[in-house]
Amino acid sequence: MDVGLYNYWAVIVLMMTGLYVVISRSNLIKKLIGLNVFQVSVIMFYISIGKVKGGTAPILEEGFEVYSNPVPHVLMLTAIVVGVATLALALALVVRLHGAYGTIEEDEIAEIDTRETNALESNAREIGAPMS
Amino acid sequence: MSASSAAALAVLWPLLGAVCVALLGEKRRNLREAATLVTASSLLVLVATVILPEVQAGERPRFELLEVLPGLALAFEVEPLGMLFALVASSLWIITTVFAIGYLRGHDEQHQTRFFVCFALAIAGALGVAFAANVFTLFVFYEAITLSTYPLVTHHGTESAKRAGRVYLGILMGTSIAFLLLAMVWTYFAAGTTDFRPGGILAGKVEGSALAVLLGLYAFGTAKAALMPFHRWLPAAMVAPTPVSALLHAVAVVKAGVFTVMKIVVYIFGIDLLQTTGASTWLTWVAAFTLLSASTVALTRNNLKARLAYSTISQLSYIVLGAALANTWGVIGGSMHIAMHAVGKITLFFCAGAIYVGAHKTEISDMRGLGRQMPFTFGAFLVGSLSVIGVPPLGGSWSKWYLALSTAEADHLVMMAVLMISSLLSIGYLMPVVGRGFFATPEKAETTDHHSTPREPWLCVLPPVVTAVGCIALFFFAESIYQLLNGIILR
Amino acid sequence: MIEHLPILQILVPMLTAPLCVLSRRPLVSWGLALTATWFALATSIQLLIRVLAEGTQSYELGGWPPPWGIELRIDLVNVFVLLIVTAISSVVLTAAPRSLEKEISSDRHYLFYAAYLLCMTGLLGMTATGDAFNVFVFLEISSLSSYILISLGPTRRALHSAFQYLVMGTLGGTFVLLGVGMLYMVTGTLNIVDMGARLGDLGPNRTVLVALAVIVVGTSIKMALFPLHAWLPNAYTYAPALVTAFLAATATKVAYYMLVKFVFRVFGVELAFTALRLDAVLMPVAILAMFIASTVAIYQSDVKRILAYSSLAQIGYMVLGLSLASVTGLTGGIVHLFNHAIMKSALFLALACVVLRIGSTQLNDMRGLGRRMPLTAAAFVGAGLGLIGVPMTAGFVSKWFLVLAALESGYWPVAVLILLSSLLAVIYIWRVIEVMYFQPPPDDAAKLTEAPWSMLGPTWVLVGATFYFGISTSLTVGVASQAADLLVNGAAP
């Protein structure tokens, strides 16, 4: 196996870890951490594909013919900004959720929601029944 | 005015009437009723004096409204079959309006304005179906009829009315979307058009068993024709006020269904194609089955309107049978039955309504001796029954005669037997009503308790008498209908 | 000036957003936002005229020629999407002030308008851009602002829905990013046209397959294609009524267009359908979406939720059209995109009127609405008939094309399934109609006044459009069929 592919293995491991955390954790903050790991794996993927074997930093200089590809790196500046913005917004939502529900565990929030729905629906039983 | 623009106007006319009725409203009820009557009579004049002569002369007035998609236009074209249907619908509308006024007022029904508005809309839909130049236009107005009659079926707003409304809408709209629309797209896909053309448009385009499948989609897609197993909506719709049952569920709605089947057979498939491929053979069996089983069910029904509903299902299958036999006599007999049965059955429904308004009776077993107190109503019922059964000298005998000829031409003795048996059955379910009314002794206790003498408003008695006379007249004027229908170009 | 229209259309809403924040007054910021959206609508009409007359318009951002610079590429397909997005945004925003006063406190209105404009910016940018990475950037702009819009909903459940959407949406966006990266790896370019040309020469390989899979999954999350739809019902139900009307008509539609753009422009019919058999995945999924979502819709007791599930089913129709990979099928998909946007936003706007007066969209609370708010109820019926696909409404036209396309491709059962599933629409719409017209109003019901004209007006404009586009199809079908031809047969730009 080519040594250069280890990057990609790392990307895959990070990505799956992140996805797993998002799915399996109930704590909203932990979910966000998973989400960020997931995003970072893709950023690392981009960084990796910019590498050109034997290339140097892409600065015009006498004596260097091969440069690494700068474009994916530049793209990732944007992606990082997007990631930060997403995280900020998500954290703000978590703060609001904590204020509204008094918890940041998703299963507890879901339970509160379900109880609310059931209360609402038992009021509406006679009409909520679907068509025969 | 040219006949082609008159055709478009005829469809538009009831719509205008509906607007007038809606504007006049409950406060000016006499004016409102006058508006309906004026619209209805002027519609008949328009249809009978402007369009009819042209069609009799062999013209095919055509009016194109707009093109929705390439090759898919909203257009009208009047040919003899549609002409007959339009004449029947518009003339019976007048009489039904008179009856409806008597019935609704005699009964203090709610939402009378809504009733008359929806009624006019349904008639507009029926005329649209009658004059449609292609399957697409027919489909549009077919759905319009369904939607506009839904508020009439659920008129009382009770739980049972709502349930009936669901069955009604579910079956009629369900089959039309699932089957009729599919058949229409298929036709368009195969032939590149959905126009009704003499001799059909499918020859060489759809082959073999696919043809039978397509015919099935059309026949079951028009659930208004009440072929079993999609007939349940018709008995369900009987919760509606009787004028609705009379005009819509004996004339406009159901006849729109069988008319569609007939028109599809004649102008989309072409009877030659069906005859050579035998694609409609199975349909004759379905029709025969519906015919016999509906008659049998009718025998078991004690509620008068339910009995009439099953009788309608059975009589509609005569027309489908005529179409499925796919020969000249079948087409003429079936089409003529549209008119003959309409006049006969509307008489019966008027009588049922008059009995309900006058004596508050709906069950046949309660009608003992009622005929002696309501002689005109029961007399009209007798005449209507005989016409539906097919006894000369009444209109119904002609169409049955031609249908019998058709089975003979097709060399289909089983079907002839089916027709005969069904006629016997119809004697069995219609005559006891008359017999009980005239000859059974009334139950004394009940009549003295509640209603000393049943009294029906004259507005409810006049219409059945008029249509009963119509049944007799049709026997003598069948010739002109025959001449009109002979103008259908079959090949 | 006129040649800068493609970028102005995106820039104007974007720059108006901070102005709204600065103004801080509800009505002033509404006025600003309204000007920006109607300007964008005028621009897209102008663009449509130009594209029809002169063909595809290419705008080089900063004067850098493609494939190096970023290109905005306006062709027949996306100008059509631009048109519907700007039209719906403008009409919906017109109804905003009265609708918002019930659900959002007035000191936060300006933030709503800012987020609304940013969301629109993102959607327009996603549609207009010709650069694959740019798609991701604009996607995130629209997503971030739509999370904000949803979280503004009146109950705390809006927060939870917004969070769920955020997690799903970010996953989707990141998947798209990953796919774009892989495509860049294979082709070395980010320009969509260039990418398509190079991929066509390369043919299928494993990286391309994975890229396709990842992009399809990413876009499917954004457009809520079954079974990746979990975020949508809650988001639509708990968002402010106006936001639902806006997002239902635009966000999922643009995501659908994004899928179309990637599949047909980048991968091409040959690669995506013949070599990689995308249709074998999308068609069953679309059919399942149609049936399962419609069935679930029947059993809901909240009308907003009924419509949300109905949206899932309608997305199924659009994807089905795409998966047929024929001109007629894609025409059906694109026409349905347009028509469904109109019908659904009309329905949700009618619900916004209901929310304003009743404060709830529970079926139970809408009893007797036919008499209490006749115009609103009638608007709901009108748009509902369109959704069912009654002839002479817009919904019929799209259904016609989908069935025709299924028959053309020889998929008989699919044609039958399309029609059967639309029967389910009859049931869930009719359930609402029955409650509105045949149930007596609750005994304790207060006397209601009809919704204000500032809201009824936009609603009825959309209802009118539902019928107009069912009768006159030259704009919708005319443009969509040309666009589909362009996409499927890859005609010269």
Description:
The complex is a heterotrimer of chains A (132), B (491) and C (493). With 132 residues, chain A is an all-alpha fold. Chain A has a single domain (3-125), classed as Helix Hairpins (Orthogonal Bundle). Chain A has five helices and no strands. Chain A is elongated, with a radius of gyration of 23 Å. Chain B folds into two domains: 1-279, no CATH class; 281-491, no CATH class. Chain B has helices spanning 3-24, 29-56, 80-107, 112-131, 135-153, 159-191, 209-221, 233-236, 242-269, 271-277, 281-300, 304-325, 328-359, 370-373, 375-389, 396-409, 413-439, 444-449, 458-476, 478-486, and strands at 62-69, 72-77. Chain B has a two-stranded antiparallel ribbon. In chain B, a hairpin with a 2-residue loop joins strand 1 and strand 2 (72-77). In chain B, helix 2 (29-56) runs antiparallel to helix 3 and helix 15 runs parallel beside helix 19 (458-476). Chain C is globular, with a radius of gyration of 21 Å. Chain C is built from 20 helices and two strands. In chain C, helix 6 runs antiparallel to helix 7 (157-187), helix 13 runs antiparallel to helix 18 (412-438) and helix 14 (327-358) runs antiparallel to helix 16 (374-388). Chain C has a two-stranded antiparallel ribbon with strand order 1-2. With 493 residues, chain C is mainly alpha-helical. Chain C has a domain at 277-493. The model of chain C has no long low-confidence stretch (mean pLDDT 88). The longest helix of chain C is centred in the middle third of the chain and has 35 residues, at 241-275. At the A-C interface, helix 2, helix 3 and helix 4 of A face helix 6, helix 7 and helix 18 of C.
What is the SS-derived class of chain A? mainly alpha
Q: Any idea what the radius of gyration of chain B is?
A: 21 Å
Tell me the overall shape of chain A.
Answer: elongated
Provide the number of structural domains of chain B: 2
CATH topology of chain A: Helix Hairpins
From the 3D coordinates, which CATH architecture of chain A would you assign?
Orthogonal Bundle
CATH class of chain A: Mainly Alpha
Q: Pair with the most extensive interface?
A: A-C, 39 and 38 residues
Instruction: Report helical residue fraction of chain A.
Output: over 70%
Helical residues, percent of chain B: over 70%
Specify the oligomeric state: heterotrimer
**Average pLDDT number of chain B:** 84
User: What is the number of strand segments of chain B?
Assistant: 2
State the secondary-structure class of chain B: mainly alpha
Dominant shape of chain B: globular
Number of strands of chain A: 0
Rg over alpha carbons of chain A: 23 Å
Distance between the termini of chain A: 63 Å
